[in-house]
Write a structure and sequence with these properties.
8 helices, Rcmb_RecR_Znf (chains A, B), two-stranded antiparallel sheet, alpha/beta, homodimer, Recombination protein RecR (chains A, B)
Chain lengths: 197, 197
């Protein structure tokens, strides 16, 4: 409905995840009214991501060098490995400041309905890393949903015979939450996972 | 928390309206995994909008030439003028296919709380157009909220003495809506604006 360039931009923005036609239009008009330098910076950032960012050859986290920042950091313990689905999970765990080991990014979770099996994930690469013998403990930090649980169960079965300690992140009530609003599965897990005080 | 380029992109995306930190991260990872050609097209569309799009010198709609598509279209009636707040309102009205006249885009609405008075809008430009004598009817299609109503009332007072017919878009129940869910002001307007059948 708009003329050329602005409709092109609305169309392109509408292809992004979570951006509907109304948001695309809103963003396009924002761009139209913003400072040319700001728009230039955004366009540049988009292109630089494609040029510079690749995946760490060790853990498959996002990186701008052969290895990511965490794999390059010699102060991080190499004997604990945390397995996550996506690079954003690495960031979420790093934010807690609780973990000083290294990561392994699977690139997804097992999902038979969508035809994603272990061969589509970086499971073989994980086994190679574990085969090196340096890893003492493996923390399975896949998402607490069906696919994540299936992936964790699969990996636990595979890794336990190697004599490596395998653990899974605790499920339970979110801190700051309200007991009465917790769903029954979460509340059930909080019960079965109760700790002595 | 991310390295260089991807964090830059998340920061830039987070400045767009309606894009929070989580969406910015989601879009950044989408960009990272999409085809370089798609990303190049989006970056190009952003920059082209700033280069090509300007405002029509007659009606202040968005345009890629001296005048917008509607002002250039000689089949459109020049004796009915529809006043709207923003270019997106032009698109919304064009979609109805009900209007064959021309537009005047004010660039906003009167809002004393934010210090926006008639001088900040294209009111003077509207009066110049109306002074030409070709316009027979003025349709006030500002938003049906406090600012839009104030703007419409102000313009009506200004234009009526010129002998031009002034009308306002009908307020009432949205088509396909449910009477019981209508707010009292809308329902009240629907009553006062009832039509003989």
């Amino acid at each position: 409905m708009y003329e050329g360039a602005i409709q092109d931009l609305i169309d392109e923005l509408g292809r992004l995840p979570g951006v509907g036609p109304k948001s695309a239009q809103r963003i396009a008009f924002h761009v139209l009214q913003s400072d040319p330098a700001d728009v230039h910076r955004l366009a540049g950032a988009l292109q630089r991501v494609k040029e510079l960012v690749r995946f760490c050859t060790t853990c498959y986290n996002v990186a701008e060098a052969e290895q990511c920042r965490i794999c390059r950091d010699s102060r991080r313990s190499g004997d604990v490995l945390c397995v996550v689905e996506e690079p954003k999970d690495v960031v979420a765990i790093e934010r807690t400041g609780e973990f000083r080991g290294r990561y392994h990014v699977l690139g997804g979770a097992i999902n038979p309905l969508e035809g994603i099996g272990p061969d589509h994930l970086r499971v073989r690469e994980l086994m190679t890393r574990l085969g090196g013998g340096a890893v003492r403990e493996l923390i399975l930090a896949t998402d607490p949903n069906t696919e994540g649980e299936a992936t964790a169960t699969y990996l636990a079965l595979l890794v336990k015979p190697m004599g490596i300690a395998v653990s899974r992140l605790a499920s339970g009530l979110p801190v700051g939450g309200d007991l009465e609003y917790a769903d029954e599965i979460t509340l059930g897990r909080a019960f079965s996972g109760r700790r002595a005080v």
